[in-house]
Amino acid sequence: MIYVSRERTMMFVALQVHPHHTPGELSLSDYQSERNSTVLTAYETFNRELAIELGAEPSVAAEDAKAFVDMQQELLKDEVEPSAKYQEFSETTLKDLYANADCTWLGVPQTITALFGLTNITLKTDERVATFDRKVTKRLEDIKAILETKSERQIRNYFGFLHAQQYALYTSRMRQLYYTLEKVNI
Q1: Is residue 105 exposed (0-12), middle (13-18) or buried (19+ Cβ within 10 Å)?
Q2: C-alpha–C-alpha distance, residues 178 and 180, integer Å
Q3: CA 176 to chain centre
């Protein structure tokens, strides 16, 4: 089993929950652009180091990390203003998910962004809150179905993995994350 240190993982929480600037200090577009750039750079570093830890050659690891960041760029196109509910969710649930010092899950930062879009879906009204809740619920159902019914090749293609070891670790933690999120009833 491979673990990531708590300190290293908490760095990603800080990047997602507490950006360098608040929306009031920058224009919304500048704030989003700066935050997105910072987070994606961190993700690219994280994925590159992860692949190397799993035995990949540095050049292959770099290619995989870049491919992951390219995938994130698509997710970051639909941002709207941050909201109180988003901040509350970020600062409670995310911290709870990451704060297990004995066994920090490898891959959770990517999971949160790539599969749930929690760093780029924000809400301003009750209607959007309801839409968000439905989206997350539907995503959980989709993920569960994918993990339970698809072949390894299909899952690897779906999540964009190029290494079988990375696929195995990631899907294991996806199952853990799915049941954790189900347990806390988000």
Answers
A1: buried
A2: 5
A3: 14
Torsion sign (Cα): 14, 17, 18, 21: positive
**In this structure, what token pair is assigned to residue 169?**
């670790």
1 part of a folded domain: no
Neighbours of 128 (CB within 10 A): 17
The parts of the chain modelled with pLDDT lower than 70 are: 1-43, 46-47, 49-51, 53-55, 64-65, 67-148, 150-186
Query: What whole-number distance in Å separates Cα of residue 42 and Cα of residue 46?
Result: 6
Residue 135 forms part of a structural domain: yes
pLDDT at 102: 28
Range of the domain at 10: 6-184
In a domain, 93, yes or no: yes
For residue 144 the two structure tokens come to 């569960």
Number of domains the chain is built from: 1
Q: 15 with 28: CB under 8 angstroms?
A: no
